[in-house]
Amino acid sequence: MPGLHNRVALVTGGAQGIGAAVASRLAADGAKVGVLDLNAALAQRTADEIVAAGGSARAFGADVTRREEVSAVVDELVGEFGGLHILVNNAGVLRDNLLFKMSDDDWSTVMNVHLGGAFICSQLAQRHMVEQRYGRIISMSSTSALGNRGQSNYSAAKAGLQGLTKTLAIELGPYGVTANAIAPGFIETAMTSATAQRIGMTIDSLRESVAAALPVRRGGLPADIANAAAFLAGEEAGYVTGQVLYVDGGSELV
Fold first, then answer.
1. Which of the residues are catalytic?
2. pLDDT tens per residue, range 94-137
């Protein structure tokens, strides 16, 4: 993708699933990528795979809800690669349950990781972006932002990310920084496998039922999200900001 060569990117939750696909795609397009994940070993595995494929990557183990840990990662990444141009807020967890069963911890954990983590990472990253007068902030929302049974915490957090994205676009736009969100629909990952199990389905049967209802007649893959992220991260997307891109196979059409 044009405009990614020698840019420096930080992908949170980058060890597996959508995060790993995004990190790999940005690296393949020429970016130097920091793979941040709570699971340092998995982050290292993803970074090693990127390097083996000819890319440039560095793994970091950190908790996005802990400002001091993220700050240390940003400082080290900037020190090693010389800047920070792209932030992908992808870190997330699931604590699904119906409202009457949901605990305070279920609620606060999901809100803190998805929304609080994106706030902390964006605030730390924008300092470098504003100074260099260039930046791309991409946050992973979800079609669940529109509401989803058993996900009041997740839906609220993902809707909050859309509001955060639009506010970042307003505040940071004058400094050459864009902010956009991607809202995936069904994407086959460990998270969707967990969702399938929660509702008493196999991942295969869930995929088939979702695909049958979509105009494109298939489920989504992490690469589908990575392709969208690569566009929004590039220089050519400089006039695109404050947007929520639904990558969902056309689910809103049916």
1. 154
2. 999 999 999 999 999 999 999 999 999 999 999 999 999 999 99
Map out the domains of the chain as residue ranges: 8-185+221-247, 188-219
Alpha-carbon gap, residue 92 to 90, rounded angstroms? 6
Highest CATH level, class, for 8-185+221-247:
alpha beta
Whole-model pTM over 0.85: yes
Q: pLDDT band for position 254 (50/70/90)? A: confident
